[in-house]
Amino acid sequence: MASAFIVWVRKGEAQERLAWMALVIFGCATVYLCWQLFFSAQRFEPLHAGHVNKVASRFFLLFAVAVWYLRRRFRGVYVDERDRAIAHRALEVGFMLLALLLVLASAITGLHSYDGFIHSVPPIWLSNCMLMFLSASAAVTSAVRVHAYLQDRR
Amino acid sequence: MSSTPIVNAIRRLRFAHGEMTQQALAEACGATRQTIIALEAGRYAPSLELAFRIARTFGVGVEDVFQWRES
Fold first, then answer.
1. CB-based contact (8 Å) between B38 and chain A?
2. Are residues B32 and A89, on separate chains, in Cβ contact within 8 Å?
3. Which of A17, A67, A76, B36 is the most exposed place for a label (fewest CB within 10 A)?
């Protein structure tokens, strides 16, 4: 099943494969950050002096490796006007999601009923939450691109 | 990408030109094969530049390839 899916993806054009890879990478990053923020046993542990923010450092390492790999793998790939139109549309959707998440977060942090929760979490938890928003936005951007290319295949 | 009010004769013209493949047309007019697929399916309206490139590839005018579909 998985191998058939990989073969199917590999039949697509370079831009479609790039969108799939970005979706997998940013999707995994989003799930990882979400798990760390909401389900991990150490999620609310206060940070002490010299403590390394492992979640953020792992995320940035993953992000840097992913960007390096994708740039190297798809260097010189031809991009035409439809690819640019799809990328533009996907960026719009990703940006709207990011804006929505940030507005929701700022609204929630302003509610009195969440005062206790906001004061109980370490600041780094909130910064990791922002990273998750970025990652989710990138994942949705990739998903929109994948969807557009899937429409082409039909 | 939704369908457009512009219809085209790309598929017919490809076959009229020695059964030209989508890949060959894409390379000739500087697009990707997926763009040609989307154009033939009526899911994408090309830029004026690409429309001219496609028409020139077939050696015809733009209006011989693309027409506005009255709803």
1. yes
2. no
3. A76
Comparing CA positions, the residue from B62, B60, B66, B57 lying closest to residue B25 is B57
Do the chains contact at A80 and B1, CB–CB below 8 Å? no
**Cα(A40)–Cα(A42) distance, rounded to whole angstroms?**
5
Quote the pTM value.
0.78
**Predicted confidence band of residue A46 (pLDDT cuts 50, 70, 90):** low
A111 close to B (CB below 8 A): no
Decide if A16 touches B, using CB distance below 8 A.
Answer: yes
Mean pLDDT of chain A: 82
CA distance B22 to chain A (A): 13
CA dist B34 and A111 (Å) reads 48
A149/B contact by beta carbon, under 8 A: yes
pLDDT of A103 > 80? The answer is: yes
Whether residue A50 is predicted with pLDDT greater than 60 in this model: the reply is no
Structure tokens, B27: 């390379």
Question: What CA–CA distance (Å, rounded) separates B58 from B55?
Answer: 5
Answer yes or no: do A13 and B33 touch at CB < 8 A.
yes
pLDDT digits (tens, 9 = 90+) for B9-64: 999 999 999 999 999 999 999 998 889 988 998 888 999 999 999 999 999 999 99
Rg (CA), chain A: 18
